[in-house]
Amino acid sequence: MYPGGIGAALATTLHDAGHHVFATARDAAKLKPLADQGITTLPLDISSPDSIASAVAFVSAAAGTGLDILVNNAAVSYSMPVADISLDAARKLFDTNVWGQVAVTQAFLPLLLLRASDGSNTSKAWGLGGLCGGGQQQRRQPMIVNHTSVGSVMAMPFQSVYNSSKAAFAMLSQALRMEVAPFGIRVVELKTGGVRTNIIANNNVNKGNAGGDGKGSEAIATSSPPKWAGHLPTGSVYAPARSVVEYAMSQEGLADRGITPEQWAREVAALLLSGNPPQVIWKGESATLAWAGTLLPAWLFEGFLKKLTKLDEVERIIKEDRQGRPADLPAADN
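User: That's the sequence. What structure does it adopt?
Assistant: Structure tokens below.
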């Protein structure tokens, strides 16, 4: 969680409401703006068992009566057509977006169970890659809040790796909801739509790395970018429409769309801290549309997504290219 993102906005909102928030990030120094507000910050790399154990020890010492809310908010993105996916990059993304979330949930579950069995009203809070809230208010069930995104219900062209990781996380969340209910713990999913954050600016296309976090070691080559970098690889079947596909992969057209992180955080916090939080919270621009899309025939919603991602234009270019060259010749790489 870093300043400017939805995690930081939610941390600030819960803190301002009087809750004790623990905000985490791999580089805790970047959380200084939150620390300056009085929010407790600590380092956490969810891919590192040692880092997770250190965070658990820290929170355990600070929140002796347990944990009220755990927010799993960390995520990286990766844009690429399925035909050109780097399996190494895809596995790396799943390690963060799925298995890292599971590891943190398992590690902090004892603190949530402790809170569930504690009858006092003195509450603590914690948050991953984001935050969490607690306070001296009415007694509430401990809660695991998983950020599964509207991407978990939308098969967006060129975003299949990210969206499938969110779909996997959503399925894990739904199963977890039933599994921890006997212990008095809630599970809430955040199906977030458009919010103006830095996630698009930090994807692999705009940052030029495999992990989508701006810290990948794989740089883009100048003329023949590797398969895992921010461009289509040389020899891609989408070569005739390279410029259109890479623009769609960059999601530049969506970068300035959405509500502000602060508005999103206010709306989400109000629901999380209500007496009976919904199992799924749909917030952000077009979140309601994404929900409606789950009720529509697939062909109808896919037509909308094709236009949104310019796949209709890609299809036209590819068809024209295939009609204009012999079948035994490969596509020219523009």
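The chain has one domain: 6-199+260-323.
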